[in-house]
Amino acid sequence: MTDPEVLRSYGYSENSYHGSAPHAVVVKPESTEDVVKIIGVARKYRFPVTPYSGATSLEGHFAGYSTGSICLDMSGMDKILKINVEDADLVCQSGARWEDINETLKEQGIPLFFPLDPGPGAVRSIALWQIFLTDPSAHPQTIGGMVGTGCSGTNAVRYGTARSEWFLNLTVVLPNGKVIKTKRRARKSSTGFDTTKLFIGAEGTLGIVTEATLRLAPVIPSKVAMAQFPDVNHAVSAVQEVLTSPYGSHIQCVELLDDHMMAAINAGGMVSEPLPLKDSLFFKIQGAQDTVERAAETIKNIVARHGSSQFRFAATDEDAEDLWQNRKYALMSTLSASPGARCWTTDVWYVVHASACSITHLVICSVPVSKLPQLVYETKQDMAECGLKSTIVGHVGDGNFHAFMLFRNDEEFEVVKGAVHRLVHRALALDGTCTGEHGVGLGKKEYLIEELGQGTIELMLAVKKAVDPDNIMNPGKLYPDLPGARNP
Q1: How many helices (H) and strands (E) does the chain have?
Q2: How far apart are CA 61 and CA 129, in angstroms?
Q3: Enclosing domain of residue 409
């Protein structure tokens, strides 16, 4: 495809702060063999290739390259190839959507699921549909993108991230056109270093993932509960004690929503009755009924010691699903509560016009869980002192939280930029990371030397240059510029 509007929609935003350009052409392969042919052409003419599938990137991973690039749209390679029920694994193409995979397993009556849960894809209301129409980052996330960014999500506290052995092997087309399979289907192997993990988090800079074998987990019954607190600091402080309690292993998810986010959910019109306008923790507790009851009693006592004014379960399974979905759609609730809102993706933050002159940034940082209360408290204090309107949500069970900051003019935008940079540096000072789950792309490159050190960056660059000496695979992304070095 070479239509200018199509090319623009695949990799360019007029509001991008990083000056991304449209691609030269969009190509939609249907098989690994098609990808090999496309890479062969790119290699011959040394033409950049940018992988694209779900378009959920928040850091500019699929943005066009300045000299022109081939956009490799993998979304058509979305088939589930084989389900090995007895081995609890599944083989699929990289364009398969994680939600579709779990829905297929459910429809076939297979009591297994793929537990990585990076974000919602389904449309639940007319207001949300308008957002999905205008926001390329609101499409369902695919397996290839999840591999590329090393994703995580709400289930990470119980099941870990993409780096936690959920990808048993990958089929990858290398920049030289060769096709490799990183490992066999065995659950464990000591055959040298883990080549599967080499591609997890590589953001398409080392090759194109075309197939993956996913490890599945058994479906375990769960209940949803909610607790309210006098402030965010008390809420976050309770999390570590809950997780280290005798029933901590039964916590599937623990999510934070501050009072402003609870208000946005109410205003978004997607709740049957208003939620309390207090800083809240949402819990998902796994296990048999008696185990859940004992775990709930323990959690209730713990959160009470941290100032919780209320702890209650969802009354029915339907209420539980609605309550949890409102957590998952917290961002969209915020937007749907703002008439005329439109959305787009920038390279550093998630940016949204909330009106003709207000924009929202999503900043993602992670720290060791014990440091999270300090990070959240200092960030809330910083934003209050700057006069910024903000909301906070987060996967606080693994030290990951998201701050939304609002501004209405260029002057306030500069204030937001300052707050964003201070937040990132604050997380790094607490031995955290600049990106907990969305990857580096273009937007977080500037922080990597501080976080990882020059020696680690040089090692990453050495791997990149060895695998992709012509630098045709998603150039300009992930790797920061080193002083005095010739970088990709």
Answers
A1: 16, 19
A2: 24
A3: 342-429
